Amino acid sequence: MSKHSNESLYWLIMQLSHQTRANLIKLAEEFDLTGIQAHLLCGMTPDTLWPMQKATLLLRCDKSYVTSIVDNLLIQGLITRQEDPRDRRIKMIGLTEKGKLVRAKLFEKTAALESASDLPLNFAERRLLRQLLVKAIIS
Fold first, then answer.
1. Are 39 and 58 spatial neighbours (Cβ–Cβ below 8 Å)?
2. First to last CA, the chain
3. Dihedral through CA 9, CA 14, CA 20, CA 24, nearest 10?
4. Distance CA 5, CA 79 (A)
5. Does some domain include residue 4?
């Protein structure tokens, strides 16, 4: 049994998250992004406009902070922002071609990090962990 066998699942997930966060922040910096900017780019769906509220829910932070993040991504040419034609009060954001490219590169590099990581899991265990995490996140 591991030294963590008596710890809660929640605590173990938090520890894994903190272990990977530093690598992801370094990766984001390669693209002149902050970790949270990279999180938004990777969370967005290419060729789909999102209401700003969806970005607020994804990032789980204050609307004014999300506006600041979006403003910075706009300046970098990674996203667009426009009014919803049905309701001008709603601002919609979408990835630009440059944003799609950076998003794809971020995913490529995270895949490389995953395969190079020191997680002592074989392919089947990694696949199972991925499936379980997707299920937990979508719920």
1. yes
2. 29
3. 130
4. 43
5. no
Question: How many domains in the chain?
Answer: 1
Cβ atoms within 10 Å, residue 16: 13
SS3 content of the chain, % helix, strand, coil (to 5): 65, 10, 25
- What's the pLDDT score for residue 1? 42
Among candidates 68, 18, 17, 73, which has minimal Cα distance to 41? 73
Q: Which residues of the chain have pLDDT under 70?
A: 1-6, 116-118, 139
pLDDT tens column, 40-54: 999 999 999 999 999
25: in domain: yes
List the helix and strand counts (H, then E) for the chain. 6, 3
